[in-house]
Every structure is written in C-alpha cells, then in structure tokens.
Specification:
Length: 125
Amino acid sequence: MSEIPILSTKIQDFILRGGRRVPLYSRVVEAAPYEAIVIPASGKELTVQLRCQDLSWNDFLSSVSNYFTPAYQPIDSVTNILFSSGTTGEPKAIPWTQHSPIRCAAVTWAHIDVQERDVFCWPTN
C-alpha cells in the first residue's frame, strides 16, 4: 500500500511554558510545506502571521461541514504529532500512530488497574 501524504497539520501558535512563549508554528513553517491549521495557545486570536495556505482554528471550524467521510488507514499511520516540552533537552516531535492510544489504554488497564467508571487523570503541562 502506498504512503498517504499528510494533507494538513493542526498546531498551536505558541506553547506557554514557565511564563515563556515557545514558538511552535514558526518551526512548522521552517520544516514543512504542508497546510497548517493553527490553534491559539491562549484566547481566541492568533498572535502570529499565517502563510497563505494556512488557516486559523476558527476559520477551519467555520469551513467544515457537519459530516465527514472516514479515511481508513493502516494501524501504523501517523494520526497526531505530540511535542515534548524540551525539559530534558531540545523540544522534539513525537509521532503517534493509530496504535498509540490503544497501547496506552491497554498498559493503563494492565498496570494501573483502571476499570470501567474509574476516573483517571495524568496531569501535565
């Protein structure tokens, strides 16, 4: 099966960390020509200038219809890209596949004994 190209990226304009604004959108602009949908880190308005092919989160939401057609992909298809905070070094991208949340749920069930109706919280920033 051939690789499906990434059509768009959803990303914050900045990461708010320890009272600092760490640029995130600008790193995507430097790294990839793909369309980006940019979410404000705080409030409703972006504080960055977007490229012509990019959309703000609000513009994206107003442009989508009330339904979608699912795109069936192999289990190892990337669905999300998380970003580490860089507390132990440089911030880095962490690709998640369709398998990642399933694996997290299985490990949580097996090792933390999370059961139906339990409330589970893993705070982070």
